Amino acid sequence: MDNKKLKELEANLWEAADDLRANSNLTSNEYCMPVLGLIFLRYAESRYEMAKAEILKEHSVRPGREFKLRPEHFQSKSALFLEEEARYSYLLSLPENVKAAGIKDKDGRDIVSLGAALDNVMSLLEAQSRQLEGVLPKSYYKFNDELLSALLRNFDNELLNDVGGDVLGRIYEYFLGKFAKAVAQDDGVFFTPKSLVRLIVNIIEPEKGILLDPACGSGGMFVQTGDFVNNRGMEANKKMTFYGQEKTEFNAKLCAMNMAVHGLNGNIASGEAANTFYHDAHELAGKCDYVMANPPFNVDKVKSDDAESAGRLPFGLPTVNKKKKEVGNANYLWISYFYAYLNDRGRAGFVMAASATDGKEAEMRRQLVEANAVDVMVSVGNNFFYTLSLPCSLWFFNKAKTEQTEDKVLFIDARNYYTVVDRNLNEWSEWQLRNLTAIVWLYRGEKEKYQELVADYKAALVEYALQAQSTKLAQLLTQTEDLQALQKSLADFAKEVQEEAKQAVEKAKRNEKKSMRAYYDSELAFIAEIAAVVEAWRWLVEKFGSEGEYQDVAGLCKIADKSEIAEKNYSLTPGAYVGVAPVADDGVDFGERMREIHGELVHLQKESNELMERIAQDLEAMGL
Fold this sequence. Notes:
Blueprint: H1 3-24, H2 28-58, H3 71-75, H4 88-93, H5 114-128, H6 145-154, H7 165-187, H8 194-204, E1 209-213, H9 220-230, H10 236-239, E2 240-246, H11 249-261, E3 266-270, E4 288-293, E5 302-303, H12 304-310, E6 320-321, E7 326-327, H13 331-341, E8 342-353, H14 362-370, E9 374-380, E10 392-398, E11 408-414, E12 419-422, E13 425-427, H15 430-443, H16 447-467, H17 471-476, H18 483-507, H19 513-544, E14 557-561, H20 562-567, H21 575-578, H22 590-621
Parallel strand pairs: 1-2, 1-4, 2-3, 4-8, 9-11
Antiparallel strand pairs: 5-7, 6-7, 8-10, 9-10, 11-14, 12-13
């Protein structure tokens, strides 16, 4: 299934599920876990069927004899063994009057509703996995059968029947992200944007060992790490050991489900005993190969005596209100923990309030810098979070720097580098993420990785040329020697397609106008996708060349040594080092102009769609 169709499927499934929620008068909190439980169940059966096929292929038996499948067979395939009554397909097969079917739950009690049947399924699944004990939702008995039946049919979309577990896992992620906004609005739950997590993982480059997230939330750091390791031909469960602490029980359940749906095993502590300010739940101080986290920012009223007794403070306590015996801002408690958990070769990457890079706690920053622990600092702009518009920063520690990076820190100011998702949300695209990571590669002297990225850009345009339905577009994509000229050609071509679309819809028959608009919308989206790749490629090579030579770029990146950092009172704010990008000689910032052109294209497409809609309405009013 291509990316466009998958996005459409995700959106359609979400729209249908959210409509059902709206009609049920349920809050997002009441609805979130049960819906995620259904997707989890759908995914679990998909993994079961794939694993079953592999197991039967590996275990041949004599004709006439049946091979008996057992739970341990499925454990070796990172899948759950599902009894017949624990399968999604079984629930779909139940009659409308479940009570009349005369079925019983695992404890021998009569099942009188579809909700009770679903609760029984969740209990059966929990019995198969220690990690899922007490995690899966078992409140379906509260839902009416009509709503549950509609939800079950919704996630039995025929397109899902032909896709594998990886795609279902992505759909689960999509729903989790959509619920993140809604749940956050309900009760302030805070989730880490995927693009921030991915940049942290890309820079940390986990390969094997212990990973701890002491503020693990819904487990995004674990999932992205698993993908990173698996995508390199290794098995994450064999190479990595995942540990998490999460005080909020609701988030901890999401984490366990999120890991299970991605086939990952983890040790997640939850509740007050997992409050990282006062507990090292897994006793991992000094033992971790990797630490990743997005802790809550600017927490106040942390009991200083209890925090000090709990340890993991190699640089001492941050500023304490001696009268109240409280740490007024816990940001540097977290920063100290992340450093303290690392072993002598450990790496850490975490999200932190932008304000923590400067101002108070200069002495703690001095100790971190003098310990040669600070490796990379990245400033992130506004609107990267679902419910907050505040900027943040990404910090990276490395206790085993190479000769190339010894006594140095790479500062990256990425506040003006992003893709607009909507009015309130920004993110880094796949190519933007790779570009930011490429700066770190060059800082580390890893030019071969940079050159592989440039080769990937070239390969991407070749693939787009093969997919192009327009001969003219395919020919344009062979002209990659001058990326600036290619960008201009793509913008001009998009305008041509817009004009062609207007005329085609005007001439189309009434019953063909909708499909005609859809066709041209798809073409314009395809061109916009290509233009974004070309823009990202040009952004990279204009700064660092085709072969990859690191250089400080005003307004973007700078490598500073300890003496420079000391001169700035140990500020770790990238903007204090990278400065401001110079204005081009012709007075035009090309990057800004390309964003304007992209905005113009989006506006033209919207204008075209509105015009087409008015034409269709006018024709309908005329009875044509």
